[in-house]
Structure formats: C-alpha cells, structure tokens
C-alpha cells in the first residue's frame, strides 16, 4: 500500500481481457506505482489468478470473485472470512435446488463454485415462474439471466461487485474519489452507477451505455485499451486519442 494514491477497480472478462490492448495496459500500470489494482469478476479465484498471470497484470490489492461473493487480499490471497460469513448467512443452495427440481423447462446444469448454481431455462415464461417460485419460498438470492445461453445463474443476495468494492476501499482506507472503475456488462452496473468516476469500454452493454451517469466515460476503445484510455484521463494524462493526434 505504500505510495498508492489511486485505485483501478475493474472487471476482467470483456473489460481487461478479450479485445486486445492487454500488453499496453499492463505496461502502463507497471509504470504507475501510485496506482493499485482491484479485480472484480464472476470467475473463481483460480481462474481469475490464471488470467492475471497470463496477461502479466499487476498483483491485486484485492480480488473479488464470484461477482463479489468472496474477497481475497493480496499479494498472498488471504480470504476475507468476515465478508464470506456475511454471504453465508442467507445463502441456501439446497433450498434452491429443492424449490426448482420439479419445474418443467428448468434443468440444473452445474455448480461452478460454492456461490453459484446454474440452471438451463427453456423460455421467458419458465424464467418468470422460477423467479416467482423463489419469492414464494422466501429464498434470498440474486438471479442473473444470460439470454443467449438460456442460462440462469443464482448467487447470494449480497454478491454484488459494487458492494464488495465499497468494503475493500473501506479496509484500504481509500476514498471513493481515489477510485476509478471499469466494466462492460450488466453485472458491472452497480460499479458504474455514479459513486465513482469510471469507464464503460466500447464493447460494453448497450443497455448500460444508455443509462449510465455523466461521471462514466463511454470509451471509443474496446477492452483494455478502453480502460487505459479512461484511466489516463482520470489521472490527468493525455487520452489515447490526444496522444495519437499529437503523434
């Protein structure tokens, strides 16, 4: 933490990786020792760490996995037990399984981690029925719908990236004004709601693009270059377009 004045808090898939520019962003971050990185992802810890190493991104100040259900503190990746306890208080995967096991058009697919249940759902009518059943059974949880895959992920009610980030910044004794956020998908929405300055990369959700506040840049660049472009402006450095014009 010594010397760190700013925090980049970013999603990984589709934001930091997957659209090029990863080497440029990694190089920039390694040259700015006053910027620490917090990664927030739907991936598990092992998968997230593998991607961070693959693209040679800086070791994290903290890593929030499973959409914020778990928090690990770097560089040794010590789990935040108090945070995990909060998620466990109302997380009832067995009740969820029992509630949905006999529903027509709904099939259990996998449990990719202890915080996520995935179901195949036939159509929107079945999806509505699932949500109604969960409410009727008074099961506290969040539902994440992937329309393309026809997959419904069910996670703890408190699994929110923005909520995890607020906890992390409090522990780091950092203010919201010192944090810059980056994302691309709807599960990054609570990161980009206006508490922080930030960027939605060019490949980001059209739905998000239309409803985000003015504090969030809409970068013309995809993926890591979009993050780099926004972060440079946050740090009062020339944007990528300004650098290109100057060159």
Considering the chains and any ligands shown, give keywords for the structure:
247 residues, alpha/beta, Rossmann fold, Hypothetical Protein Ta0175, Chain: A, domain 2, four-stranded antiparallel beta sheet, 9 helices, 12 strands, globular
List the helices and strands and how they pair.
Blueprint: E1 6-10, H1 22-31, E2 35-40, H2 45-54, E3 62-65, E4 70-73, E5 78-79, H3 81-88, H4 93-100, E6 106-113, E7 116-121, H5 124-136, E8 142-146, E9 151-155, H6 161-172, E10 179-183, E11 197-200, H7 206-211, E12 216-218, H8 223-234, H9 240-246
Parallel strand pairs: 1-2, 1-10, 2-3, 10-11, 11-12
Antiparallel strand pairs: 3-4, 4-5, 6-7, 7-9, 8-9
Helix pairs in contact: 1-8
What structural category arises from helix and sheet content?
alpha/beta
**Which residues sit in consecutive blocks of at least 5 with pLDDT less than 50?**
none
Would you tell me the overall average pLDDT? 93
- CATH class designation of the largest domain: Alpha Beta
Residues in helices, as a percent range: 25-40%
What's the main sheet like? 8 strands, mixed
Question: At the third CATH level, what is the topology name of the largest domain?
Answer: Rossmann fold
- Tally of DSSP β-strands: 12
Name of the CATH architecture of the largest domain: 3-Layer(aba) Sandwich
Counted by DSSP, the helix tally is: 9
How many domain units?
2
List the helices and strands in order: EHEHEEEHHEEHEEHEEHEHH
Strand order of the largest sheet: 5-4-3-2-1-10-11-12
Intertermini distance: 35 Å
